[in-house]
Amino acid sequence: QLLPHFKEVDGVMWPVREIPLLSLERVLDAEVTSHGKEVIQRKIQRLLKKRDYLDSFVKELVDGLVPNRVIRERILSDHPDLLTQPLCFDTVVKMFSRVCFDFIRNPYALKFSYVLANLCEELINTTLIVNRMVDICEEVEITGVH
């Protein structure tokens, strides 16, 4: 039985969110023309640039809510074993998808659901989290983060 967030490709387990990148890399390896390789390399670079943008965005979101560096690092790195603040999490996840990065159009954004859970687990007021999202998500103009 495979893990739910992993897919086996050529005997190697890959996080599902890496499949779009893996697919592009395979197409690149199979491409024979230099023009074709350039086109695919640009697609890969765009994908990576969008991911970097989202990574920075989530860090900025946390930085604006959590003044303590040690706690910020924990929020950005730890994956909670238990969710004790489900109402906060439900509200924050829905708001993130609605006003920041729609999970359907930006599947890579799902990667950060643990960060949203951690913000709630730190007992940060849900309204503060939502207001911070609304403030910084006005400027988001990127979609298609795979």
From TrEMBL:
Q: What Gene3D superfamilies does the record tag this protein with?
A: 1.10.132.130
Residues of the Legumain prodomain domain: 43-137
Mind telling me which CDD domains this protein's record contains?
A: legumain_C (cd21115)
Q: Which InterPro entries match?
A: Legum_prodom, Legumain_prodom_sf
Check the record and name the Pfam families matching this protein.
Answer: Legum_prodom (PF20985)
Q: What is this protein's record name?
A: CX domain-containing protein
Q: Which organism is it from?
A: Parascaris univalens (Nematode worm)
